[in-house]
Amino acid sequence: MSKLLVNEKEIVVPGETLATGMDNLPGNGTYRDGENIIASRLGLVQLEGRAIKLIPLAGRYIPKTGDTIICKVIDVSINGWRLDTNSPYSAMMSLKDATFDFIARGADLTQYYDLGDYAVGKIINVTSQKLVDVTMKGPGLRKLKGGRVVEVASNKVPRIIGKAGSMVSMIKDATGCNITVGQNGLVWIEGTPENEFLAIQTIRKIENESHLSGLTDKIKAYLEKAKKK
Amino acid sequence: MAYKERLNKRGFEETRPIEAKVGIIKRADGSAYFRIGNTIAYAAVYGPRNLFPRFLQDPQRGILRCNYNMMPFSGSGERVRPGGSRRSKEISLVTGKALLPVLNLEEYPNTVVDVFIELPQTEAGSRCAGICAASMALADAGLIMKDLVAAVSVGRVDDKLVVDLDYSEESYEGIVADIPIAMIPNSNKITLLQMDGMIPKEDVKKVLEMAKKACKKIYEVQKSALKDKYKVEQDV
C-alpha cells in the first residue's frame, strides 16, 4: 500500500519520511530505504509525476556541467588559469579554452587573464573528484571589465533571474546597468554608481523575499518608487 | 536515603525545558542554538570548503572537524581556562563520531566541514546539547544527511533511573551513573554511548529505552525549529 505523506511545497528536514511503498520514485535530495522514501536534505517538496524531488533551501554551490558561472582568476600556471568558483572546488581553464587568439609558446599569460580578473565562464566538465574545467568559448562568455561583483545565495539565483530572465531584465531596464548572474551565486553589475547601488539593493530584496509569490510585481513597484526619488 | 523527588518536581523520565532555534549566526553557512535547562549550546557550520594543508584532504570523502568549547564564564562560577583541554579534545572527537554516521560526505571529496560548538552556559549534559545543536546546524547548512541526531543523557541516581541529569544529580552523594547517548531517532541507532559511574546491567537496558523516548521528543523539537526558520519567512 503506497502512500504519500507530504504535500507539494512543504518544508522537510533530513530523515523525514516522504512516502511509503514502491509507487513513488526518489528524486534529487531524497533516498530510498526499504519501502520508504526519505529526505536527505532541508528542502521544499516538489512532485514530478511519480518522482519526489527536493528543492534545496540552503547549501553551498557545487559545480555542475553546463552551468554559466562568474569566476575569479586565482593563479596563472604554465598551461592555463586556475579560477575560484565560489564553491569548495576551484576550476581550471586551459589555454585552448581561454581565447580564440593564437598564444605563442612562452607568451606572458597575464596579458589575457591576470590575477584577480573576473570572467563569465561555462563549466564543460566536472569529474567524480570534482576537478572542474571552464571554457570561455561560447555566446556571452567573456572577461569582465569594470563594474562590481556581489555574492548571493546560489539557491536564490533562479528567483533573481526570473522566468525566462524576466526579473533580471526588469532590473536592467530600470537601472540601466549591465547585469550578469552566475549560477554560482556571483552577480556582476556595471553602471553608474547610483544605479549600481539600486541594482544591488533590489537583488538583496529579491534574495530576502525569494519565497514569496507575486515577487515580480513587488519588485516592479519597488523599482518605480526608487526611480521617482 | 532514597532519591525521591527531582528538582523542580521534574518527572524521572522528563527532560529539562528545551528550546531550539536555527540560523542565528548569519555569517555561517548553517547555525543553531539549543538549550536544555541551564545548558546552552551554539553551533556554527562552515563548509563544505577547501581544505588546506592539502595532505589532509581525502579524495574519497569530505572530512568533518568538530570543535567543542566551553566559554571561560560558562561553568558554576569557577573560571574555565580558555582554549583546548584534555576534556574538550575528547568531546570534540566523540561529537564528530556521533555526527559522522548521518552525513554523506562522499558527495564532497577533498573538502572539509567545520563545526564549532560554543557553550556560554553549562550545567551538565553539555556534550549532548552540543550534538543536538550541531546536527541542526549541519541540516541548516544544506548538507546531504541521512537523518538528524538527537542526544540526551540518562542514568541512575541512587535507586532511580532518570533522564537528563542536571548538575545536582551528577554530583549526588551515593551511586550515580551518567550515560550520554546520541541516537538517530528514525532508525533507533546509537552513535554515542559513554558512561560515568556504575549501573547494573539490567538497568542499562531500561535506561536505553528511556533514552530512546527522550531522543524522539528532542528530535521533534529539532524538526520544528528547522521548519520554523522558513515558516517565519513565509508569514512575513
Describe this structure in words.
The complex is a heterodimer of chains A (229) and B (236). With 229 residues, chain A is of the alpha+beta class. Chain A folds into 3 domains: 3-56, RNA polymerase II/Efflux pump adaptor protein, barrel-sandwich hybrid domain (OB fold (Dihydrolipoamide Acetyltransferase, E2P), Beta Barrel); 68-144, OB fold (Dihydrolipoamide Acetyltransferase, E2P), CATH 2.40.50.140; 148-228, K Homology domain, type 1 (Ribosomal Protein S8, Chain: A, domain 1), CATH 3.30.1370. Helix content of chain A is 21%, strand content 34%. Chain A has 5 helices and 17 strands. Chain A has helices at residues 95-98, 157-161, 166-175, 193-208, 215-228, and strands at 3-4, 11-12, 17-20, 25-26, 30-33, 36-39, 43-48, 51-56, 68-77, 80-84, 91-94, 118-126, 132-135, 143-144, 148-151, 178-181, 186-190. In chain A, strands 9-10-11-13-12 form a 5-stranded mixed β-barrel. In chain A, strands 1-3-6-5 form a 4-stranded antiparallel β-sheet, with no helix packed on it. Chain A starts with a strand and ends with a helix. Chain B has one domain (7-235): 2-Layer Sandwich (Ribosomal Protein S5, domain 2), CATH 3.30.230.70. Chain B contains 4 helices and 10 strands. Chain B has helices at residues 86-99, 126-140, 167-170, 201-235; strands at 18-22, 30-36, 39-50, 63-70, 111-121, 150-157, 160-163, 176-184, 189-193, 196-197. A 5-stranded mixed β-sheet of chain B has the order 1-2-3-5-4. In chain B, strands 6, 7, 8, 9 and 10 form a 5-stranded antiparallel β-sheet that branches. In chain B, strand 4 (63-70), helix 1 and strand 5 form a beta-alpha-beta unit. In chain B, helix 1 crosses helix 2 (126-140) and helix 2 (126-140) runs parallel beside helix 4 (201-235). The longest helix of chain B has 35 residues, at 201-235. The mean pLDDT of chain B is 93. At the A-B interface, loops of A face strand 3 and helix 4 of B.
